[in-house]
Amino acid sequence: MVLQVGETEKIRQLIQRIEKSEVPVAEEEPQFEAIKEKYSRGQPLSFEEQDLVLKLASKAREWEKAVESSASTEPEHTLPGC
After folding, report:
1. pLDDT at 77
2. ∠ CA(28), CA(34), CA(36), 5° rounding?
3. Hey, is 3 helix, strand or coil?
4. What is d(CA 58, CA 16) in angstroms, rounded to the nearest whole number?
5. Do the Cβ atoms of 32 and 57 come closer than 8 Å?
6. Interior CA angle at 74 toward 69 and 78, to 5°?
7. Residue 37: predicted pLDDT
8. C-alpha distances in angstroms, 31 versus 35, 39, 63?
9. Which residues of the chain have pLDDT under 50?
């Protein structure tokens, strides 16, 4: 599957979002690094690679929501000693 021009821009934005969020990608790290390298060389991503980027971007959105939620928690609403 070859991405169209608008879709390649979307992939770039998703990769940037994943990196910015600093979401732990654990076992997907080697694959993600390979995808970034492949993308930077202008090579098309496979369907599986695109799927992984979408999965990690979704994980990044959830991570960002959790970080924001945690940051907005009032200190008196947290457990003592935590």
Report:
1. 59
2. 100
3. coil
4. 13
5. no
6. 90
7. 96
8. 6, 12, 20
9. 1-5
